[in-house]
Design brief:
Elements lengths: L1 H6 L11 E5 L22 E5 L4 H4 L7 H19 L5 E4 L8 H9 L3 E5 L20 H15 L5 E4 L2 H10 L8 E3 L6 H10 L13 E6 L7 H17 L1 H4 L2 E6 L14 H6 L6 E4 L5 H10 L2 E5 L11 H6 L3 E7 L3 H9 L3 E5 L10 H12 L9 H4 L4 H14 L8
Parallel strand pairs: 1-2, 3-4, 4-5, 5-6, 7-8, 7-10, 8-9, 10-11, 11-12
Helix pairs in contact: 7-11, 8-14
Length: 417
């Protein structure tokens, strides 16, 4: 959603007239609503909102996926628009993957090319060798549906945009007909407008009330067992700090917000148990419920230090890193050594970075590195500034231009896409 939202103010000046099909907010889960997002979208963009089956009925049969609930209404609206008007391209930019399967159908029926924007794994093999306790609910049902639909869709896409080179590499290996020239890696960006809107309209958070007498360290984003290694590094470093510098480290309090995709009040805590295993339960608050986007920005802006733990999944790209950076807060990032986040932070010379390789060493081997990073962040006079010019290529306009240039290249005579 944020990819499209941040691109809409710029597509016209880059040569594209956008028309949007989306699901009416009345049919989405409550945590995803944020009326302030409307302040960032041009009012004259054509937006077609469709209905979806209501979860109060579908959850009785175990169906909660928005893309499944809205699939036929999106299909109907797409058929209507494509039949009535001329369109050069269908661009799927969403993590509601099931609707991407409409691409080949519309391509056959209306002779219109389609491009997919992959922001998370569709068919996710990561959990195949994991124990049942570490897999998402209904994993194999979802996995087999995703495996089938991905194979019926991706090989027929005219272009693939992805936030991660790893996702492109996976598709090229999985589907040999895909050429690397048809793939373009464009991570998420961030808009200055988002910070302006947050600081103008958001004055508090009802869900996250930071402790005024503590050094509040905040992470906002999903949890999951693939982040356990990074979290073990962090919590082992905090335990070391409490043992060696208790007066300082005793003031820390960690907040993990929005760690589950489950319905409000029903999420499973995956971070607090790790903290408890290090004797740190009293230093950690995990809120599984998601909070609105601008409220999240507000909480991050009020934190003393921002925290981003990385995944052991080699394809994982933390798109959330850009809001963290634009706020220019003190930052601790703990990531796999080959993550794109590592290159970005080193390029900006921003934040304290701990890199790991979980395949060769245990988490305890990185305790000292993380402890030193925390001590640096807690030292008086620590600076979190960086060269703004280096960050411009990572903002919304530059990322949207990258998309527009790639899409335009699809129509160049003799182009290699």
């Amino acid at each position: 959603m944020h990819r499209v939202r941040q691109g809409l103010p710029y597509f016209r000046q880059l040569g594209w007239e956008p028309v949007v099909i989306t699901v009416d907010e009345a049919y989405t889960e409550s945590y995803s609503r944020d009326e302030l997002l409307l302040h960032t979208i041009p009012s004259d963009i054509k937006v077609h909102r469709v209905k979806a089956l209501k979860t109060k009925y579908t959850r009785k049969v175990g169906l909660g996926s928005l893309s499944m609930r809205a699939y036929f209404n999106i299909r109907r609206k797409g058929n209507e628009l494509l039949r009535k008007d001329h369109f050069d391209l269908v661009y799927f930019s969403t993590t509601a993957f099931h609707v991407m399967a409409l691409g080949p159908e519309w391509k056959r029926k209306f002779k219109v090319p389609f491009v997919v924007d992959i922001q998370d794994p569709w068919r996710n093999d990561f959990y195949l060798d994991k124990p049942k306790s570490e897999r998402p609910p209904k994993f194999f049902i979802a996995y087999n549906i995703d495996k089938y639909l991905e194979a019926k869709t991706i090989p027929f896409a005219d272009g693939i945009i992805s936030v991660s080179q790893g996702y492109c590499n996976t598709f090229i290996k999985r589907y040999p007909s895909i050429k690397s020239s048809r793939c373009k890696v464009i991570p998420f960006g961030i808009a200055d407008k988002d910070v302006e809107v947050m600081r103008q309209y958001v004055k508090k958070s009802d869900k996250v009330i930071l402790s005024p007498d503590k050094i509040n360290i905040v992470y906002a984003g999903r949890g999951g067992y693939d982040m356990a290694f990074a979290l073990q590094i962090i919590f082992s470093a905090v335990a070391k700090g409490l043992a060696e510098n208790n007066a300082l480290f005793n003031r820390l309090h960690f907040w993990f917000v929005g760690t589950s995709y489950a319905n409000a009040g029903s999420g499973k805590k995956t971070i607090l148990p790790i903290a408890a295993s290090y004797g740190l339960a009293e230093y950690v608050t995990e809120i599984t419920d998601r909070i609105p986007y601008f409220e999240t920005l507000f909480v991050l802006d009020k934190a003393a230090i921002l925290l981003v733990p990385g995944s052991t999944d080699s394809t994982y790209t933390a798109s959330k890193i850009y809001p963290y950076i634009i706020l220019k807060k003190k930052l601790l990032a703990v990531f796999k050594y080959n993550s794109s986040v590592v290159n970005l932070l080193r390029q900006l010379q921003y934040g304290e970075l701990v890199t790991f390789d979980h395949t060769t060493k245990s988490a305890d081997n990185y305790t000292e590195d993380c402890y030193r990073a925390l001590c640096q962040l807690l030292s008086p006079g620590y600076s979190s500034s960086f060269d703004d010019a280096l960050f411009e290529p990572h903002k919304a306009f530059a990322k949207t231009k990258g998309q527009a240039d790639f899409l335009t290249a699809l129509f160049q005579p003799g182009g290699n896409l």
